[in-house]
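Section 3.1: Structural characterization of target chains.
Under the original work plan, the team committed to producing a structural model for every single-chain target entering the pipeline before any wet-lab resources were allocated. The record below documents one such target. The sequence was received from the expression subgroup and is listed exactly as submitted; it comprises 68 residues.
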Amino acid sequence: MAKKTNRNVSKATVVTSPEVAVKATTRTRLSVTEFNPDYTAIKGDLKRIAILAGSFFVILITLSFFLR
């Protein structure tokens, strides 16, 4: 196996004035929006699927009694 070595990576430092730093923080705060999806259509589809599946199970159970 190859020996693992750690690399020293230099990080660039950016010197900005306090005014620029304040503007940058307010810009990032304003661009963040809350993720609030609307699942009403999906809930309706899931209810329809559950009703169909339940009715098919009931039909299969009743047919099993008649076919014996």
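Residues 40-67 form the longest helix (28 residues).
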